[in-house]
Specification:
Distance between the termini: 39 Å
CATH class of the largest domain: Alpha Beta
Largest sheet: 9 strands, mixed
Number of helices: 19
Structural class: alpha+beta
Helix content: 25-40%
CATH superfamily of the largest domain: Bira Bifunctional Protein, Domain 2
CATH architecture of the largest domain: 2-Layer Sandwich
CATH topology of the largest domain: BirA Bifunctional Protein, domain 2
Shape: globular
Strand order of the largest sheet: 3-10-11-21-16-15-14-12-13
Length: about 575
RNA sequence: GCGAGUGUAGUGUAGUGGUUAUCACCCGACGUUGCCAACGUCGGAACCCGGGUUCAAAUCCCGGCACUCGCACCA
C-alpha cells in the first residue's frame, strides 16, 4: 500500500486553509477520528448526498427514510452487532501487548467468540496460551472493547441500554413493514437512508478515511429470491468494469468485463448485485471519480459475513492507495429473519402469489381436540400438526401416525372425524432477500477531491484547479467586479442577488480589492465552475464575461441569458 | 492500545535557555490597475495544553492531547 504523503499533506493543508475539512474541536486540542466540514466542504457534502439520493430515487421504486442514531441494545443484539462488535481484549502483563482474547484461543476452544470475560480468562490459563510477542503466559483480565458507542436512554441510571448506530441499515430493516405497505406489498423495492454512523475505532488513522463518526448512505433493496430477473433490463447500458474476483474462487484472474458476461460466467453471482455495481459505477463517474482508478473487488469466502452469498467492494485508488468506499453485499434473508426472530413479529416477510391457485379438495381426518389433548398432553400439538399434514388419510381407524420427532402414536377412532376439506391456497409467505449497497460518503468525497485536484503549470508557477463536476461544486458561480469603481461593485452585487434568488443556485461573490487574476485563482482552487465578471462593458450594454474554470476560456453573454443558462445548467454547452 | 518521531500565525516554515520570535504565501484597508496568483503604503495573525527545573522556558524534564510512521485493530 503506497501512500502518497506529499499529496495527502498538500490536500489536507488546502482543505484546512479553504474551509473544506479539518480536525474537529481543534480549539480544545482535537479529538482523533472526528472531523468538521467547513463552509466549502459543507456545501460539497450536502450536494454529494443529494446526488447520491436522487441517483437511487430515480430508479422509481426506492424511498428515503430517516431513523434515529440512538438505537436500543436489543435491536443491535438482534442484528448481530453486539456480538460482533464486543470483542474482548487482553493485555500481556510482561510486554504490555494488547491482543484479542478470542483470536488467541482460536484452535484451542470451540467458538471462543461466544465466551464472556471470565470464561476467556479461564480458557487462557487452562490452555497456557503464550503471548505472541514475548511468549510469557502472564495475562491481565480480559475486558470488552466495544466498537460501538454505548449510551443509555433516559437521564437517570436505570435507563434502557443503547448504542449509537454503527450503520444506518437497521433503520431500513426495522421499518420494513411500513415500507412494504407503502409499496402496496409488491417486491422488489428499496429504501435508503443518508446519515451518520459511529464506530469507536481503537486507533483512527488515515485522516478522513477512518473516522469515529462518519457520513454514510445505505440502500437496502428487497427482492423475492425466486423472482425471475431480466438480465437485459438489469444491465441496461452495460459498460466494462474492472473486476477483481475472489482469488480462491473459480475465476481468480482480474479482468475488465461488462456485467452481462460477468453474470453469465458466474463471476458476479446475482444479477441484482450486478445491477447495483453498474449503478454505483455510474454514480461515481457523475461525482467525478476517475473511472480508471476504480475497481470492484470480490470478498473471499472467509472475509464475508457468514450469511452473505456475494459481496463486492468498490475500491478507489487515491493518495492512500486502494480504499474500500462502497460495499455491495447480497445478505440473503439474514437481517429480516434475525429481527423477526428477536422481535417475534410476523410482519418482516412478503407474500408470493402462486401462478395458479392450488385447490385442495380432500377427505381428511380432522382432529377432535377434546380427545387428543388429554390423551397426548404435551405432544398433543405435534399430533394435531401431523394429522393435518398427511395427504392420504388412512381409510379406517385406528391407524399409526408418525410424528415430526420420529415417534409413532396410535390414533383411535374417537380422536378424529372424517371430513371433506376444501380450500384454495393462493400463495405463500417468505422472507425477502436483501441486496445492500453501503457507501462511505466521506471516503468518496476525499477521492472526489483527490481525483479532481490538479496542479498545473501556469506561467512557470504551480496553479491549483479543483475540477469538480458542476453538480458537486461548493458554489455554482462566483461573481467578480473587475474593478471596485465606476459602479461595477454595485452591479456585481445586484447580479449576485439575482442569482441567489434562483431556486437551487448558490453563488458567491468576491468583490474585495484583489486583482482579477487572484480572485480567479481563489475560485479555481475550491472548484467553482463559472466566474462571472462585471466589467466596463457590462455598464454599457448589460453583458458579462463567463470564464470556464477548466480551460479558462471566456464568453460574453447578456445577464438575462446568463441567468437562464445558470438556471438550466447549460453553460457548459457554450464551451464545447 | 504499544513503540518511535513530530507539534511555532489561516497555510507552509526558521529559530533551540535571555530575540520586539524568522521568512514566504495568506487575510484586510486604502491607493493604483482595461481580465488570469501585478504593484505600493498601512494593518492583522503563532510558540498544542498542564505541571516541573531555572534569576529566566517556545527551547530542558514529566504528564496529557493531537498528528505521522511501524505493530496491533479495521463486523
Amino acid at each position: 500500500m503506497s501512500v502518497n504523503e506529499d499529496r495527502v499533506q498538500t490536500l489536507m493543508a488546502m482543505f484546512k486553509r479553504r474551509g473544506v475539512v479539518r480536525p474537529a474541536f481543534e480549539l480544545y486540542g482535537g479529538v482523533a477520528g472526528l472531523f468538521d466540514y467547513g463552509p466549502v466542504g459543507g456545501r460539497i457534502l450536502r450536494r454529494t448526498q443529494e446526488i447520491w439520493l436522487h441517483h437511487w430515487l430515480r430508479l422509481g421504486n426506492i424511498v428515503e427514510i430517516n431513523s434515529p442514531t440512538v438505537t436500543p441494545h436489543l435491536v443491535l443484539e438482534a442484528s448481530g452487532h453486539v456480538g460482533a462488535f464486543n470483542d474482548h481484549a487482553v493485555q500481556c502483563l510482561s510486554c504490555e501487548a494488547v491482543e484479542r482474547a478470542d483470536q488467541l484461543l482460536e484452535g484451542h476452544v470451540n467458538n471462543p467468540d461466544a465466551l464472556d470475560a471470565a470464561q476467556l480468562d479461564a480458557a487462557l490459563s487452562e490452555h497456557a496460551i503464550e503471548c505472541p510477542s514475548c511468549s510469557t503466559t502472564d495475562w491481565a483480565g480480559s475486558a470488552p472493547m466495544n466498537l460501538m458507542f454505548p449510551t443509555s436512554i433516559g437521564p437517570v441510571g436505570t435507563g434502557r441500554s443503547a448504542f449509537l448506530r454503527p450503520e444506518t441499515a437497521q433503520g431500513m430493516f426495522t421499518n420494513y413493514p411500513s415500507i412494504y405497505r407503502h409499496f402496496k406489498q409488491r417486491l422488489p423495492f428499496g429504501a435508503v437512508q443518508v446519515g451518520k454512523g459511529y464506530r469507536n475505532e481503537i486507533s483512527p488513522r488515515q485522516g478522513m478515511i477512518r473516522q469515529r463518526e462518519f457520513n454514510m448512505a445505505e440502500l437496502e433493496y428487497f427482492i423475492d429470491p425466486e423472482a425471475e430477473v431480466n438480465l437485459a433490463e438489469v444491465a441496461r447500458n452495460d459498460v466494462p468494469l474492472n473486476l477483481v474476483p475472489d482469488p480462491k474462487g473459480a475465476h481468480a484472474e482480474s479482468l475488465s468485463s461488462e456485467m452481462i458476461p460477468a453474470l453469465e460466467a458466474g463471476i458476479v453471482r446475482h444479477p441484482v448485485v450486478g445491477h447495483f455495481m453498474l449503478e454505483t459505477y455510474r454514480l461515481m463517474i457523475q461525482l467525478g471519480i476517475d473511472p480508471n482508478r476504480m475497481r470492484f473487488r470480490q470478498h473471499e469466502q472467509d472475509e464475508m459475513a457468514h450469511y452473505a452469498s456475494d459481496c463486492w467492494d468498490l475500491e478507489i485508488h487515491g493518495c492512500y492507495g486502494w480504499i474500500e468506499c462502497v460495499g455491495i453485499a447480497h445478505r440473503g434473508c439474514y437481517d429480516l429473519e434475525a429481527h423477526a426472530l428477536a422481535s417475534g413479529s410476523m410482519e418482516l416477510r412478503a407474500w408470493r402469489e402462486h401462478p395458479e391457485p392450488i385447490h385442495v379438495d380432500k377427505t381428511a381426518w380432522v382432529p377432535v381436540q377434546a380427545k387428543i389433548g388429554p390423551a397426548f398432553r404435551g405432544d398433543a400439538k405435534m399430533v394435531i400438526q401431523s394429522l393435518e399434514a398427511i395427504d392420504d388419510a388412512p381409510k379406517s381407524t385406528p391407524f399409526p401416525l408418525t410424528l415430526t420427532n420420529g415417534s409413532v402414536v396410535t390414533i383411535e377412532e374417537d380422536m378424529v372425524e372424517s371430513r371433506r376439506v376444501r380450500y384454495t391456497i393462493n400463495g405463500e409467505w417468505f422472507t425477502p432477500h436483501v441486496i445492500e449497497p453501503a457507501f462511505g460518503i466521506d471516503r468518496i468525497i476525499w477521492h472526489m477531491m483527490d481525483h479532481s485536484f490538479n496542479q498545473i503549470e501556469k506561467e512557470g508557477e504551480s496553479y491549483d484547479i479543483m475540477r469538480l463536476p458542476e453538480d458537486v461544486a461548493p458554489y455554482d458561480a462566483v461573481v467578480l467586479p473587475l474593478f471596485n469603481k465606476d459602479g461595477m461593485s454595485e452591479k456585481a452585487e445586484s447580479l449576485f442577488r439575482d442569482i441567489c434568488s434562483i431556486p437551487g443556485l448558490v453563488p458567491t461573490i468576491d468583490a474585495f480589492g484583489k486583482s482579477i487574476g487572484r480572485r480567479y485563482a481563489r475560485a479555481d482552487e475550491i472548484g467553482i465552475p463559472w466566474a462571472i465578471t462585471v466589467d466596463h462593458q457590462t455598464m454599457e450594454d448589460g453583458t458579462v464575461t463567463v470564464r470556464s474554470r477548466d480551460d479558462q476560456r471566456q464568453i460574453r453573454i447578456t445577464i438575462d441569458n446568463l441567468l437562464e443558462q445558470l438556471r438550466f445548467r447549460t453553460l457548459a454547452d457554450h464551451f464545447n
